[in-house]
Amino acid sequence: MAVSPIVIFITLLYFAVIFGIGVATRKASANPMDYYVAGRKVGPVVNGAALAATFLSPASFLGLPAFIFLLGYPFWWGMIGVIGGMPLASMLTAAPLRKYAPISFTDYYCDRYEDQKWMRVLLGIPILFGTWTYVVLSLVGTGLFMMTILRVDYTVAVVIGAVAVLFYVYMGGMVATTWSTAFQGVLMAIAAFVSGLAVLSAYGGPANMAAAVQTATPNFWMMPHAQEAFSHPIMKSWTGVVSFFFVWHFGFATMPYSVVRFFTAMDIGSARKSIVWCGIFGGAMYWGLMMIGTAARNLIEKLHPLMGQTMVNPDGSTGVISNVMHVLSKIRADFGIGGVAVTDYSMVAAIEALQNPWLLGLLAAGGLSIAMSTAAGWVVVGNVLLGRDWLGKTFGNKWAIDNPVKALRIMAVAILAICTISSLEPAALVLDLSGFGFLVSISTLGPPLILGLWWPRATRAAVYATVIVFAPLTAYAWLYARNVLGSPHWFFLSEVLLGEGARVSTPHQIYWIPMAVIFFIIVSLLTKPASPKAVKAYCEDLH
After folding, report:
1. Taking all residues of the chain, what is their mean pLDDT, rounded to a whole number?
2. Which of 109, 117, 206, 451 yields a CA-CA distance of 20 to 30 A from 128?
3. Tell me, what's the pLDDT at 541?
4. What's residue 147's pLDDT?
5. How many Å apart are CA 542 and CA 8, to the nearest integer?
């Protein structure tokens, strides 16, 4: 497959806009408030588009179609759970946090629980873990789409993407990130929606597509216990479907990279309306991704230009590319993808199969949009934590206090350098990295945020206990399930409780999130509450 001039042209237009935003917003670096939270001047449409692009990430654009490709129709409900969680943010966090108007994600915790120093250090652990997982998976996505566009080695593609992200974060901070991400949010929604329409058009309508998928993959549409057959072992029981629904469901209300978007809104009404617009942009994108993921296997095996070509097998013998995994393996070998899961490319390969360079160029630009916007959003969260909260607020570094923007820029460079190296051999599928980050972050950061806003009895001791207990516990359970049982979607104690070879489906060990909430409540009831002044200012008055 050769480089397409049309795809290159569309990509150059995309980068011209992104770099133009970075240059146009460079004056924001002179004002720390603009650099931190875009001066709190962002309207609901722009903020909603930026929210969609930041929150949904390559875990959505690449990972969700890949999981439909792997797990079948039941995973549609995992995608619905993501969109379904957006109204929770409007009810639980958007309005009160915008009324409070912090600068950093940790500010609320420090004020509500009356601990301005070590609270920032403790909360920084899950925040930095989330930053690492999401910037890595975003750079993986950027690399795969740059590879699609330029037909260059995966490593080169990742470095190009990382440099581009650094450019506009370095130049304009949250101002550049907001406006570039808003543009990217609109572009990704259009790209996915138009690609979904193109897939349906290739089949002549949804009924024909459904029939073709049924013929090619008879178990694709099977829900748990519909018959003895199932779409995938993880989806054999309802625990798989229900758990996937809730993995990302609560993230919009609690994850740092989405919550900080409420800080940039013009007012409380704008914060709430931002979520409505986010749902519109995200819903359009998700519909297109559902169509692509559903048809991917059938499209690739029938139309992809690599089908029927000669391939070299691992043992050195040659064979004919005759199925979807052969196609993806060939792409992996040709472009040095290395440790990246080959199925993460299935969505791109499905659109390649339609052999329309304009469509592929649009999809690639949309993919770069969502990958770069999520990376930028998390880099801003991370550099504010390291440069402002840790160096300045916690350790009192005079240079960081006197030069806040320079401190954040240095931290941005450090974050992107570390994550670029990690993205060359990522630890898991992009959607699995996303689930890992969500599990650890929501279990530790979610209960003290939500209950701190709405429950006067929430205590500082409960925050410390929840982070200290659940950060290592959730990480251990996820890693044990993945490395010992073969997938992070099996309950990590399956064999201990049910015997060797037993498997119970609990995707991403999601049960830890409600357990963390219960744990937080119990510890709060047993420990000293915050002062009446703090409760009134940071709980009761924010409602």
Report:
1. 84
2. 451
3. 92
4. 79
5. 49
Tell me, rounded to whole angstroms, the distance of Cα 63 from its chain centroid.
9
For residue 198, the SS3 value is: helix
Fill in the amino acid letter for 370.
Answer: I
Mark 190-207 as b/e (b = at least 16 C-beta within 10 Å). Answer: bbbbbbbebbbebbeeee
pLDDT in tens, 329-339: 888 777 766 55
How many other CB atoms are there within 10 angstroms of residue 55's CB atom? 28
CATH code where residue 451 lies:
1.20.1730.10
Are 144 and 420 a contacting pair, CB within 8 Å? no
pTM (two decimals): 0.86
Each residue's pLDDT tens digit, 183-234: 878 888 899 999 999 999 999 999 999 999 999 888 888 888 655 677 778 8
Tally of domains within the chain: 1
CA distance 173 to 33: 10
- The amino acid at 446: G
State the residue range of the domain holding 251. Answer: 5-542
Are 361 and 11 contacting, i.e. CB atoms less than 8 angstroms apart?
yes
Residue 272 near residue 87 (C-beta atoms within 8 A) = no
Residue 516 burial by Cβ neighbours in a 10 Å radius (0-12, 13-18, 19+): buried
Q: Report CA torsion sign: 129, 130, 136, 137.
A: positive
